[in-house]
Every structure is written in C-alpha cells, then in structure tokens.
Amino acid sequence: MPGNQKELVHFLSDMYSVEQQALAQLVSAPALAGDRQFSNDLRRHYAETEQHLRLVRERLDSHEKSVSILKTAIMKAGGKGFLLFALTQPETPGKLVVHAYSYEAMEWAGYEILRRFAHLADDPQTVAVALTIRDQERSMMERLERDFGAAEEVSHGTLHPEDMSHHLQNHLREAHALEIQSANFTKQARETAKDPFFGEVCNRNFETSREHARILEQRLFLLGAKPSRIEDNALGFGGWNWSFFFKLHSDTPAK
After folding, report:
1. What pTM was computed for the model?
2. SS (H, E, C) the chain
3. Which is more confident, 97 or 231?
C-alpha cells in the first residue's frame, strides 16, 4: 500500500474510534444537560454521529481495512468514563458543555486533517466525507456556543450570592490547571513538530499559556486564594502523557 494511502487508512481508523467515543458519551449526555435546548442539541448530534460512524466505516471498507476492536473498546470506555466522572461533579451541565465543545473542536480539526490526507492519497470520496462531517462538527460547535448561557444558569442559578466568591476561586483554579497542562503539552509538541512554522506556533502558545497562568494566579491572590497544586500537577502530568502518546505514532505532527 503506498505511503499516502497507508497514512490515510490509519487516520480513518483513528477517526472511527473517535466517533465511537463520541457516541458513547452522547447516549447519556442529554439527560445530564439540565436544559431542554441543550439536551435537544445533544440528541440531534447523536443522530449525526451515527451517520459519521457509518460514513467513516464505509471509507474504511472501501480500502479493505478492518476496524481495530481494541482501539474502539478503549475509546468507548473512555467516553462512558467521562460521563461517570461528570455525574460526580457539581455544575454538571457547565462541565458537560465545556467538554462537548472541546471534543467537537478536536473532531473538526481531525476531519480537516483527514481531508488533506485524502487529497494527497487521491481519494475524492473520502475528501467529500471529511468535508461533510467537518462542517457538521463546526455547526455543533456553534449550537453549543448558544447553549453556554443556559448551561451556566442551570449550574449556578441556585447558588447563594455569599458563595459566589468561593465558587469563582474554584473556577480560577481549574482554569489555572488547564493553562499548566497546555504549557506542558505545547512545550513537548514544539520538540516533535518536524515543521518550523508549526514549531513556532507551539512556541507562541507555550508562552501564551504561561502568561495566562500568571494572570490567573494574580486574580486568585487578589481574592485571598492560590492555585491548587494538586490540580496543577494532575493536569500538568496529563499534558506530558498526551505528548508521550503522540510520540508513539508515525503521524505525530498531524495528531
């Protein structure tokens, strides 16, 4: 199998597993939304995701490539694991919409890369599939943006005003930990970028994330609080783990 086609099939297999995880999350997510419109948007995307799975599977079949049962099982378990985690958290609708939005952004980027792989492999059918799904992922991102307000209201609407400062501190700590994770991840990414322009993008994002973390730390100090080292270390370690995972793949820069 030619190199371009081999990379295409490999990436198709990855996106199939990504859609399996998305479907596993969308089974129960509407019941956690707490808002009718948000719930309906999740149900609508469940139907779209079923279509995405079918389309990607058809493209894999056209290349006579079977689906990785192990990879699919791992991704499904990961999707269900997130929902179990969400159920144990306060402000579930808010955390759900943030996670859903980030997942859609990852899928959108994945299908844009798939489109480019398909073009290099001279596979117009896969190009068309990638464009269709990519645009649907973008549309779902726009619907989720509309749902931010409702998810916030459901999550915080009953919060007593006296508790708002403590609540804000928790969110600032979470945001600080995310910036630490982003900095660790992009620091490793720039070392494996294999492209000067992409490496420079990673470098700028690394510096930006560090600056964001500094600003958030200042806000916490002004509120008489400080970052959570436990959260920072946990998410920061996660950033290193992602970098290690990507280094194991032949198409690391694309991922």
Report:
1. 0.83
2. CCHHHHHHHHHHHHHHHHHHHHHHHHHHHHHHCCCHHHHHHHHHHHHHHHHHHHHHHHHHHHCCCCCCHHHHHHHHHHHHHHHHHHHCCCCHHHHHHHHHHHHHHHHHHHHHHHHHHHHHCCCHHHHHHHHHHHHHHHHHHHHHHHHHHHHHHHHHCCCCHHHHHHHHHHHHHHHHHHHHHHHHHHHHHHHCCCCHHHHHHHHHHHHHHHHHHHHHHHHHHHCCCCCCHHHHHHHHHHHHHHHHHHHCCCCCCCC
3. 97
